[in-house]
Write a structure and sequence with these properties.
alpha/beta, Rossmann fold, 4-stranded parallel sheet
């Protein structure tokens, strides 16, 4: 396994934890926002293990939480680029280094934001909608090489990034608002990713899998009484 992150200490900590579990892992520090880092990541994988079989592309974010009437063109386009181009660059680099030689599986990380109409998330929701469409298109393009490409779409997840939402009551209120009544955990997302990467999902490609406690099932409006 080859893992990546921008913070050297966090990468080292994750690498040590995975090694303690008996995994053969290499940590590579750098932002997948840059193509030299993408090349370094895939090169290290080949140098260490001789092949690339599985990819999880997680890079993304909402750097400009602004409404449509305040966001600039540059901010909108940068948000779309951040949430789409690194995944394309990583998949292309892996394909160039033999991902399709022995089949393979790719999972991108989307978001439940395209299901919503949150004003400040206009750029982020648009970017993740683009990622979903991109995932389906790449899945079609790579199907002939027996490479599967899917996406996992998390809703609100208990992480350090969302601590302010769940910390006061351990997520009870946020979880109770979901159809399944429980706040989504990081392990729930990891389990979905592992499933899509595995042979258990060998007949699945081009989907976006919502892992959000049923949040995407929110009721619509109807004028019929």
């Amino acid at each position: 396994m080859v893992i990546n992150g921008r913070n050297e200490d966090r990468v080292a900590s994750a690498e040590a934890a995975l090694r303690a579990e008996g995994l053969d892992v290499i940590g590579v520090v750098g932002s997948m926002d840059t193509e030299p880092a993408v090349a370094m990541l895939t090169d290290r994988a080949i140098d260490a293990f001789g092949r690339i079989d599985l990819i999880v592309s997680t890079l993304g974010g909402a750097p400009y939480p602004l409404s449509f009437d305040t966001i600039s063109e540059a901010q909108l386009l940068e948000t779309i680029r951040l949430n789409t181009w690194p995944a394309i660059a990583l998949i292309r680099a892996a394909i160039a280094r033999g991902l399709g030689d022995n089949a393979g599986s790719v999972v991108t990380i989307s978001s439940g934001s395209p299901h919503k109409t949150t004003s400040a998330m206009v750029a982020y929701a648009s970017a993740k909608a683009a990622l979903n469409a991109m995932t389906r298109t790449i899945a079609a393009d790579l199907a002939g090489r027996r490479v599967r490409v899917n996406a996992v779409s998390p809703g609100l997840v208990r992480t350090t990034a969302t601590r302010s939402i769940w910390e006061s009551d351990a997520g009870t209120a946020a979880g109770s608002a979901l159809p399944l009544g429980r706040l989504t955990e990081a392990e729930d997302i990891a389990a979905a990713v592992c499933f899509l990467l595995s042979d258990d999902a060998r007949q699945i490609t081009g989907i976006t899998l919502d892992v959000d406690g049923g949040n995407h099932l929110g009721r619509g409006w109807t004028p019929i009484k």
